[in-house]
Design brief:
336 residues, alpha/beta, Purple Acid Phosphatase, chain A, domain 2, 2 domains, eight-stranded mixed beta sheet, seven-stranded mixed beta sheet, globular, hydrolase, Calcineurin-like_PHP, acid phosphatase activity, metal ion binding, secreted
């Protein structure tokens, strides 16, 4: 007797979800370990597609809802596998607890499109550190909203690509030496020197061992930027040399509330800022001397990434879903 194709597809998705749950549970068993996650490819051609958005959590205000609407539309068109969040997930001061209404009001009730009901791989931003950090990392939150995947630093193996998520906020000196009127939740980070040393060692080791066709590092803070915050010097000094030495293809970040693409002139790294998830900063742009600024937009929007074993395509969209900038490359990074 022939099987109904729809029933077969549903059964396959249920099996994948079960496998995913097991992977997350095992990876999360000891939060002190460097978390390693797996995201099996589901497309027959071995390709991978995802969206990147940052600096978004404002209860739908500052065009967050409109950006979410367009993300849903593009996500469906590209048949995305997941979403990457580059941090500053909840303004102005993160979450107060796992039961903070801001989680539903800024995430669950905003990103409602069917195409966005996928895993959200998330890093923390500096505004998240102004609240209860453990709330965003909590397994309680993960059980309430299965899409939500957030750790301080973690690895994600998506077969043709490997993602290295790194917690950048503790690297920034001024948050410790001159926090002004802000209070940061440094539980789990102190002793800071040891925390940073381990984070860099773990990243360097993982990058060195990786055989992925594409190596992608994700953090909240900029390394290179023409935006308001500019370069993050602590990351230029401590993180960038590791990325350059290990042939990283993309560094993706938020923090500057804009969309931008900068090509390194000294390596193959593409610096991609997707920080336009809600409130944007008009008119804040500075000149870059060392790197090639390919694109800068001081408004709201997001980014899509399509990867094949030998090709990549990056597209930036505005709040209306219109294409602002497209960049394609082969694995040897000769521009197409």
């Amino acid at each position: 007797m022939a099987c109904d194709p729809m029933v077969v597809n549903v059964m396959i998705m249920m099996i994948i979800c079960c496998l995913w749950t097991v992977v997350i549970f095992r990876a999360s068993a000891d939060v002190d370990d460097h978390v390693r996650l797996q995201h099996p490819l589901r497309k027959h051609d071995g390709s991978l597609s995802f969206l990147v958005v940052g600096d978004w959590g404002r209860r739908g205000n500052y065009n967050q809802s409109q950006v979410a609407l367009q993300m849903g539309r593009i996500g469906e068109k590209l048949d995305i596998d997941f979403i990457v969040s580059t941090g500053d997930n909840f303004y102005e001061k993160g979450l107060t607890s796992e039961h903070d209404s801001a989680f539903e009001e800024s995430f669950t009730n905003i990103y409602t499109a069917k195409s966005l009901q996928k895993q959200w791989y998330t890093v923390l931003g500096n505004h998240d550190y102004r609240g209860n950090v453990e709330a965003q990392l909590s397994q309680i939150l993960r059980k309430m909203e299965e899409r939500w995947i957030c750790f301080r630093s973690f690895l994600l193996n998506a077969e043709i690509a490997e993602f290295f998520f790194i917690d950048t906020t503790p690297f920034v000196d001024k948050y410790f030496t001159d926090p002004k009127d802000q209070t940061y939740d440094w539980s789990g980070v102190l002793l800071r020197k040891n925390y940073l040393k381990k984070a860099l060692q773990d990243l360097e080791s993982a990058l060195r061992e990786s055989s992925a066709k594409w190596k992608i590092v994700v953090g909240h803070h900029t390394i290179r930027s023409a935006g308001q915050h500019g370069d993050t010097q602590e990351l230029v000094n401590q993180l960038l040399p590791i990325l350059e030495a290990n042939s990283v293809d993309f560094y993706m970040n938020g923090h500057d509330h804009c969309l931008q693409h900068i090509s390194s002139l000294s390596s193959s790294i593409q610096f991609l800022t997707s920080g336009g998830g809600s409130k944007a900063w008009r008119g804040d742009i500075t000149e870059l001397n060392e790197d090639n600024l390919r694109f800068y937009y001081d408004g709201q929007g997001f980014m899509s990434v399509e990867l094949e074993p030998t090709n990549a395509r990056i597209v930036f969209y505005d709040v209306f879903g219109e294409i602002l900038h497209t960049w394609s490359a082969s694995k040897d990074f000769s521009t197409i």
